[in-house]
Design brief:
The protein is mostly beta strands and 841 residues long. The chain is 11% helix and 46% strand. The protein has a 19-stranded antiparallel beta sheet that branches. A 13-stranded mixed beta sheet has the order 16-17-18-19-20-21-22-9-12-13-23-35-36, with helices on both faces. The longest helix has 18 residues, at 2-19. The radius of gyration is 33 Å and the shape is elongated.
Length: 841
């Protein structure tokens, strides 16, 4: 027993001494004393290491023991020294690295001889699949720091004066704009990956959560490289991809010896501009034919979007035979846009790497893609003392200053002053877009509409009409919301006054964002279009009626009483139910006034349907049930809640409507259904394909009133209708029907620079080809199809929001037509909208 206690005591003492960490610190420079930013410092024969900061300063915590410490930097000879720690002392050691002396291979020089680089690259390409597939599972600890710095600011932006201090800059427009650091563990196995955030420290927000999914390791062994999502939908072609020789020129610049390997320096040169290609240098370790390090860049001439340049630096190290792992990665983005000049970096320091070693199956449970440990964003300053990458002087200052600013901004008096500032009435903006007023603590928000959101319009039925709307949103302390809407509408020509209101109560799950249920009621009398899915908004009809003399919008009045229920499970599945009782009343034209010389004002009943369907005042009791499902959802588990992330699968929708006769004089008697599937497919180098396929029809059509028919998303305006939901040249109501079954298809193919990058003027302008088609088929007497081709990304810099298409159509009426459509990019940060196409009143 005494021996056991003695053994236990020895073990405890050993563990105690082993847990005492010493600190190795210093600076990495070249022989001239210039700092080498983000140089790699690691312990030989272990997976431990760190990266210097942008000033070349590094620090590394080590338990007691003797270590061989190596410092390396691309283009410089690695240096190794031995250090011995006996306790928690601090050892300072500065590295001075010499330029790497490159030797040239002994080759026989012949006229037109191939550069030796090509043979090296071919051998690396042959091993590409081996290096890609050999890592079946990977786990590592990562320290991540992201910084954005301002190099210049405009005095004004969007008509508002820019507060430079709020942006983190000095009077010259320079300073730290964003700063965040994280300590995470990362796991991957097959197509699954998981990030566990152990600690996060965001400047200016003590409760900040940073980046849930850290910048991924850019894998150049993939044929198609995706650096940052959204920077180029086509991706970029790797210099060691299977077809790299066709895209790149390579130049051998020499070799050197390191740790028993011959390291070749290869210059990477794109063969053509305006292709998704890198430029820079790559270092290859012979025999393993593996990437040892690289310094590659993409620019605007590489089809880079949003950013001006993006530089990738990586250092790899040999973990075990034939197995090279990333040691550090630095991304350098730069952007100049709208007067803002921003540069930055995201550095990742990888340590404790494990390849193809067992990991718990629970790591990938419940489809959690990223999670935070409890109190991950509550760590005190002592936690960050041993950060692998020391803070620079301005970064230390930024944490101090912005933490002080946060305290000021968190003061209820400051919050209330900003609320009052936001409530300031701006006559022009309020007239055009409406006015929003926020009450104390933003618990009550009131919104009105403006001229661009259908406050005043004109049509041939009502003449000039005024339709003010008021929305009141009340937030409860428990997280629920109550939204009340009310609208009044008066037509000066037909002298009809209408009013309608709705109340919606939404209960959201605070622990699961997106998981909610809503209950609503609606009632009143208002004006509606026959086509509930019409792409035509009132302000557009006002223009066509007054200026062109075409009254495209066809409307009717209805008394309405409805109950709504919607349930969203936050996992890609949702359903909704609507119980509706309506009294529909026909309306007639009361005016033909127009500025046009020869206006063509047509009757209010759609001409293609006049006499074909019963249309008189009628009552309708209708039940509508809709289901929507998108598989493959994953989740981010934040400290206090879970956030769903859409999967890479299509969205499936099923809608069923039942007209129920003999209830409160209801005459409607039909069963209508529609099933659709839609998705946006990334095709890498071949661009992106957006599609929507649908089928539907009437199982029973004993009594179908005009508003209940199947209507296309038709369009006769030069302004394009929503691309994968509509038909660009289809005449209004011509193809409406009550057929038993129909099919519908929409294809929208974005080439994202493919082909146009071969045409000189188009590639400089960065205009991209887009093409596709829309089709509808009910029977041989009722079908419609159209094909289109055009250019998108029209504009300049951040204002690339326009798209122009030439459209050609053919149909069952043998009336082939063609036309031009001008559209707005729905993904643009600049939104131009004339009313809400999805708003029913």
């Amino acid at each position: 027993m005494n021996r056991f206690y003695l053994f236990a005591l020895i073990v405890c003492l050993h563990l105690s001494f082993a847990s005492i960490a010493g600190t190795l610190t210093g600076k990495v420079t070249d022989t001239k004393g210039e700092a080498l930013p983000f140089a790699t410092v690691f312990i030989q024969n272990t997976p431990n290491g760190t990266t210097a900061n942008a000033d070349g300063e590094y620090q590394l915590s080590l338990p007691a023991g003797e270590y061989k410490v190596t410092c390396q930097y691309m283009g410089f000879a690695a240096v190794t020294f031995t250090v011995n720690f006996t306790g928690n002392e601090t050892v300072k050691h500065n590295f001075s690295l010499q330029d790497q002396s490159l030797q040239m291979k002994d080759v026989v020089v012949k006229a037109n001889a191939e550069d030796p680089a090509y043979n090296i690259i071919r051998k690396t390409i042959k091993r590409r699949k081996f290096h890609l597939d050999q890592v079946r599972s990977f786990q590592t600890s990562v320290y991540v720091k992201g910084v954005f710095r301002l190099r210049g600011l405009p005095d004004e932006f969007m008509g508002e004066k820019v507060d430079k201090s709020e942006m983190g800059s000095d009077t010259s427009g320079k300073g730290v704009m964003y700063l965040c650091e994280e300590d995470v563990d990362y796991y991957s196995k097959g197509d699954k990956d998981r990030t566990v955030v152990k600690a996060v420290h965001e400047s200016g927000d003590p409760n900040g959560l940073g980046i849930a999914r850290i910048p991924p390791v850019v894998t150049f062994y993939e044929n198609n490289v995706n650096i940052i999502s959204g920077m180029n939908p086509r991706g970029f072609i790797s210099p060691v991809s299977d077809n790299a020789i066709y895209y790149y020129k390579f130049k051998y610049e020499g070799e050197y010896q390191e740790n028993g390997y011959t390291i070749d320096k290869i210059r990477v040169i794109p063969r053509r501009k305006y292709e998704p290609l890198f430029t820079g240098v790559i270092y290859i370790a012979e025999e393993d034919w593996a990437i040892q390090s690289l310094d590659l860049m993409v620019t605007q001439t590489s089809n880079l979007e949003f950013l001006d340049t993006l530089n990738v630096e990586q250092t790899h190290r040999l973990l075990k035979k034939d197995t090279w792992v990333v040691q550090s990665q630095v991304l350098y983005p730069t952007i100049k846009m709208l007067g803002f000049d921003i540069t930055g970096y995201f550095v990742g320091v990888y340590s404790k790497q494990k390849v193809n070693e067992p990991m718990p199956d629970t790591i990938f449970r419940k489809r959690i893609e990223s999670s935070y440990e409890a109190n991950a964003n509550k760590k005190d300053t002592s936690y960050w003392v041993s950060r692998p990458v020391p803070l620079q002087e301005d970064e230390q200052k930024d944490f101090r200053v912005k933490d002080s600013i946060y305290k000021v901004h968190s003061d209820p008096k400051y919050i209330d002053s900003m609320r009052r500032k936001g409530n300031k009435f701006a006559p022009v903006s309020s007239l055009l877009n409406g006015y929003t007023y926020s009450g104390k603590k933003y618990s009550n928000v009131y919104t009105t509409n403006g001229l661009l959101t259908n406050l005043v319009n004109y049509n041939s039925v009502e003449g000039l009409n005024v339709a003010p709307k008021l929305t009141w949103m009340h937030r409860l302390d428990t997280g629920e919301t109550l939204i009340t809407k009310a609208a009044v509408r008066y037509g000066f020509s037909n002298q009809h006054l209408n009013g309608i209101a709705s109340v919606f109560y939404t209960h959201g799950n605070r622990k699961w964002i997106g998981r909610s249920w809503s209950l609503g009621v609606e009632g009143g009398k208002y004006v509606f279009q026959f086509n509930p899915n019409s792409t035509l908004v009132p302000i557009e009809n006002t223009f066509t009626t007054l200026v062109q003399g075409y009254n495209f919008m066809k409307i009717y009045e209805r008394w309405n009483g409805a109950l709504y229920f919607k349930r969203n499970y936050g996992n890609g599945f949702s359903f909704d139910v609507k119980l509706d009782y309506e009294r529909r009343s026909p309306l007639e034209n009361t005016t033909s006034y127009s500025f046009a010389n020869k206006p063509e004002i047509t009757p209010n009943t759609p001409a293609p349907l006049a006499g074909a369907m019963p249309w008189a005042q009628n009552d309708a009791a209708i039940v509508r049930v809709g289901f929507s499902y998108r598989p493959g959802y994953k989740y981010i588990q934040y400290p206090d809640y879970k956030m769903p992330m859409p999967g890479n699968y299509p969205t499936f929708r099923l809608v069923y409507e039942k007209g129920i006769p003999n209830i409160l004089n209801s005459v409607s008697d039909f069963d209508k259904w529609r099933f659709s599937v839609e998705d946006e497919l990334g095709l890498k180098l071949f661009g992106q394909l957006n599609y929507k396929l649908a089928a539907g029809g009437f199982l029973n059509n004993k009594y179908v009133s005009l508003p209940d028919m199947m209507h296309l998303g038709d369009n006769q305006l030069i302004l394009a209708a929503p691309y994968t939901n509509s038909f660009q040249l289809a005449k209004y109501y011509r193809y409406s029907n009550t057929e038993q079954i129909y099919g519908e298809a929409h294809l929208d193919y974005h080439l994202k620079g493919l082909l146009t990058n071969k045409i000189p003027l188009l590639r400089q302008a960065k205009w991209y080809l887009v093409t596709g088609g829309n089709a509808f088929f009910a029977n041989t007497n009722n079908y419609y199809a159209e094909a289109f081709a055009g250019l998108e990304n029209l504009g300049f810099r951040a204002y690339r929001i326009l798209r122009v298409d030439f459209v050609y159509s053919w149909d069952s009426y043998n009336q082939n037509t063609y036309g031009i459509r001008v559209g707005i990019d729905p993904t643009s940060i600049f939104k131009i909208s004339f009313g809400d196409r999805n708003e029913t009143w």
